[in-house]
Design brief:
Strand content: under 5%
Distance between the termini: 57 Å
Order of helices and strands: HHHEHHHHHHHEEEHHHHHHHH
Mean pLDDT: 94
Structural class: mainly alpha
Strand order of the largest sheet: 1-2
Number of domains: 3
Length: about 400
């Protein structure tokens, strides 16, 4: 009981701490806001459910393996994103070891967070009875084939079939689970039990809102560039994109059922090892295809006076995001606004400066093609993010 109470209080303290460090820009903790927020949530939820007599679901000896497996699971979608290019990362740490550890710990929250939230809603909804679904002959074969066809369409025509990124894996895993007699959504629906399905859908919606809320306020974050849905965003997510979170939660629940079917500890360890290798391969791809910008230390920028740099460095400021703008003159402020514009980054700022673009107003005179060429960025959806951001910031400045 003492351990539960301690962990419960720790989760609350961590959540409050995360908000305070972001609000007051406390160095260097503000850059870990997203990670702190999610792990405080996992601590809170697992401890809360343990009070209900279920014991700890993830805060046990299996946690390291589960973090690795969760990371590997999410990396499947990161790999798919190399093709569909629906999101990209900004303001990541330039140090590779720090960045890869951040990937592992962040992606490692996916399965615990979604699964714990699903368990919460299962306790609330119970066995929700529905009209049984008619049994589909040869369901495992048809589900697996459907998933593979979806994957083929997704890879072949990514700008059209990108929504299938959140569906194809569900069919494949659920078909396998059905065949092996493990937890299957189709089996539940055939038996008239909709509780687990509804709980997973609600879990995805809640976790999706938390994902987007905490991501929006983070320094290191992702930005969406979804075809046809580049506007009408709530936080960084296009409004219709929120429908994808409940479906993604079904994927998580199906994958967890698959893992529960692996009874031998040796197979879990082998799976974790393979997951770790796969994750690091994908990490390399993320750096190459998905990361758009890195943070930069104040001492490395060329537009801040040396005396000001020394003062900032002595204060222990890790990146330009920790600088008090009151310390900068007007030209320095104009330069740092470009660096911080939707995480454009210092390297991209230097590219623009080399082409004579040293303030936001000049960005507005550029076409998509010109900016794409300057930044050496072929993805026009990303380019439009910065043109729109420049318009918004310039409007605020002159308003």
């Amino acid at each position: 009981m003492k351990i539960r109470i301690t962990l419960f209080l720790l989760s609350v303290v961590l959540l409050l701490f995360g908000g305070l460090i972001l609000y007051y820009r406390i160095e260097p903790f503000q850059y870990f806001f997203y990670i702190i927020s999610w792990w405080s949530y996992i601590l809170f939820m697992d401890t809360y459910l343990s009070f209900k007599g279920k014991g700890f679901l993830f805060l046990n000896r299996s946690l390291p393996c589960m973090i690795i497996l969760s990371c590997g699971f999410w990396c499947i979608f990161e790999a798919i994103n190399f093709v569909i290019k629906n999101w990209y990362y900004i303001n990541l740490p330039p140090n590779t070891y720090e960045r890869y550890l951040g990937y592992l710990i962040s992606f490692g929250t996916v399965i615990p967070a979604v699964s714990l939230t699903t368990e919460l809603f299962c306790g609330i909804l119970g066995d929700k009875r529905i009209r049984p679904v008619r049994q589909i002959r040869r369901y495992p074969f048809k589900a697996t084939l459907s998933g593979l066809i979806m994957l083929g369409l997704l890879i072949s025509f990514p700008d059209i079939f990108f929504p299938l990124a959140w569906v194809f894996l569900l069919f494949i895993i659920d078909g396998y689970n059905y065949l092996k007699g493990q937890g299957s959504f189709m089996k539940d629906l055939e038996e008239g039990n909709g509780g687990r399905c509804f709980s997973a859908l609600l879990s995805g919606l809640l976790c999706g809102l938390l994902w987007e809320t905490w991501n929006y306020w983070s320094v290191a974050k992702w930005i969406y560039t979804v075809p046809f849905f580049e506007d009408m965003k709530v936080f960084e997510m296009p409004l219709l994109g929120y429908f994808g979170f409940p479906v993604f939660s079904l994927n998580v629940s199906a994958f967890l059922s698959f893992l529960k079917g692996i009874e031998k500890k040796r197979l879990i360890l082998i799976s974790s090892f393979l997951s770790l290798i796969f994750s690091f391969i994908v990490f390399f791809g993320i750096d190459k295809y998905t990361v758009f910008s890195y943070t930069v230390r104040p001492g490395e920028v060329d537009f801040i006076k040396d005396e000001t740099k020394r003062h900032i460095v002595r204060a222990g400021i890790r990146t330009t995001y920790g600088i008090d703008l009151k310390l900068l003159d007007e030209d320095e402020k104009k330069a740092i606004k470009i660096v911080h514009l939707k995480g454009l980054g210092y390297k991209n700022y230097l590219k623009l400066k080399g082409s004579g673009v040293d303030r936001l107003e000049k960005l507005l005179d550029l076409s998509e093609g010109q900016l794409s060429k300057m930044l050496n960025e072929p993805n026009r959806r990303r380019i439009r993010v910065y043109i729109k951001a420049a318009k918004k910031e310039t409007h605020k400045y002159f308003r």
